[in-house]
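Fold it.
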Amino acid sequence: MTKTLHYIFDPLCGWCYGAAAAVKAVDKAPNVALRLLPSGLFAAVGARPMDEDFAAYAWSNDQRIAGLTGQRFSERYRNEVLADRQQRFDSGPATLALSAVSLSSPAHELEALEAIQQARYVEGQDITRPDTLARLLKGLGLEAAAAGLLHSGAELLAANRARIESAQTLLSQFGARGVPSFVLESDGRRELLQSSALYADPQAFAAQIAKA
């Protein structure tokens, strides 16, 4: 019996970046289908300017995540992303890019998410820019998704809204607080997962889901 793990995230969420190893382990687990659902948490009304106070808060939080998970937050990210007062904290473009991948090459959406996170947190790229995102997608061989992102037609915008609405519905249904959140669906039943192994032991987290 195949189970579905609904992974609710935001591409600008540092804790979601910290959960990357666990998500990748689940993606490789037998009899588990991974469904990515961007929440839109930091898009639209959730977006904000990158001011001094918020940048300092973000960097402090990032260091906690790095210490817990081993994920890298580079000085280049600190100097070229957090210190850039023209670059908003806005996950809308990256969310739309992932929805473009989900339409044209759904099997590669997790790969695209990882590339976007790497570009921001390690390489210090501005992933709030559609041209940056399109270049990343093309580098993965996802030309159709890149073209779809730059065109942003009605089909893509509708699919993006539907994915965000699905994520928000699940969060509301289970009273989940923020992202990342994981909802496991098996035999017609859904449950919100709680696991201390998510950051400390990604393989144990994947094993927990496989055995659930």
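The mean pLDDT is 96.
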